[in-house]
Amino acid sequence: MHIVGGGMAGSEAAWQAAEAGIPVVIHEMRPKVETFAHRTGDLAEMVCSNSFRSDDHEQNAVGLLHWEMLQAGGLVMRQAYTHRLPAGGALAVDRDAFSAGVTQVLRDHPNVSVSDEEITELPEDGQWIFATGPLTSSALGAAIARETGADALAFFDAIAPIVYFDSIDMDVAWLQSRYDKGETEEERKAYINCPMTKPQYEAFIDALLAADKTAFHEGETAGYFDGCLPIEVMAERGRETLRHGPMKPIGLTNSHKPEEKAYAVVQLRRDNALGTLYNIVGFQTKMKYGAQTEVFRMIPGLEEAKFARLGGIHRNTFLNSPTLLDAQMRLRSKPNIRFAGQITGVEGYVESSAMGLAAGRMAAAEILGRPLPEIPQDTAHGALIHHITGGAEAKTFQPMNVNFGLFRPVDGLKGGRRGRKDRYKAYTDRAKAEWTGWLATQEVPA
User: Fold this and answer.
1) Tens digits of per-residue pLDDT, 327-382?
2) 8 known ligand binder
3) Which residues belong to any copy of the MnmG N-terminal domain (predicted)?
4) Which sequence spans correspond to the domains of the chain?
5) N or C: more exposed end of the chain, with fewer CB within 10 A?
6) What is the CATH topology of the domain spanning 159-315?
7) At the fourth CATH level, which superfamily is domain 2-152+319-439?
8) Sign of the dihedral through C-alpha 36, 106, 28, 442
9) pLDDT digits (tens, 9 = 90+) for 393-416
10) Is 10 annotated among the ligand-binding residues?
11) Distance (Å, rounded) from C-alpha 140 to C-alpha 350?
């Protein structure tokens, strides 16, 4: 089996197939061919956030995906838990240690080899999985467009900046997870919080709106995915937008001035195990580098901030999967080719890894001649696959995170906000039973 792309989806697909006994070649063009966003040649490199988001597998669809992948012996989730950092109720990791761990496990596997060859065409034969992610090379993107007869859809994905901890003024900022969430003291203090008064917030918004932004190249359009909007785009939608988004002050009490309620709060989340790096949560941006340092140093506590990485922006391509892929995630016009990960129109590390897990198992079963039962639609994996391969409206298809809105209703449960807790628990209970049953029909990797 050949897998093109060694990101989250490609790495997980390779692991699942290799564990099933299939020889796998991962074609990863980095570091031989570099991209704008990547820093290394490691597999499963985390480009944007270092978070896999909520780990609550009873009340959150993302947490349910975590659970399902762990039950299926998923490499990405195993490594995530191995390199976990305190992050309240979220699953955040030391990004470098995580990707190094995934790389080592795959390179050590007897059924896996890694090639730095750049694949620029769609092969006519053999079993292939294309998991090239948001930064699919221009040559391969052109080949996909020629084959599908449709232009690749695109939006722009933005990267949040990373700050050195020792440059943060902790006499102004304080450590606290929202609502003190977490089972340990370390979890309850997983975030650094920088408070703003109303005048400070207003001045910050003014500077943000006036700052120099990255210009788009001719022919490019800015069709952002709402789950990853640059902060300046959010600010353009209304001056209060950020205060009700990544800068919301609810659930936080300033330990230096507990009697004062902040008008807005900027949060930073630990980015490595040493605790020397913190990323600014939700602060994806397309401001120019000089403007970023000026604007971000207006944040109380970050006046002397030193940046390990500034924010950036890159093009993100994805297929109109409902029209192009079958239920086995195969390209209808070339069924020897499957797609997985963000290029299929899922959004996020977790969702990309999950689609890699599914594609890897599907392709391995086909090679082995062992029919693989359809992944149940009422699981988190099944809900996503159903959405991208036919459940979504093709005319308005956009990248999608996993969410309970993709799940079929459970009969007899109350709707609305009041019934949400019971409804979500019913979704996850049903999904776990269905997923466990599906895994029982095949050999689960040890």
Assistant:
1) 999 999 999 999 999 999 898 899 999 999 999 999 999 999 998 999 999 999 99
2) yes
3) 2-370
4) 2-152+319-439, 159-315
5) C
6) Elongation Factor Tu (Ef-tu); domain 3 (2.40.30)
7) FAD/NAD(P)-binding domain (3.50.50.60)
8) negative
9) 887 787 788 999 899 889 888 766
10) yes
11) 24
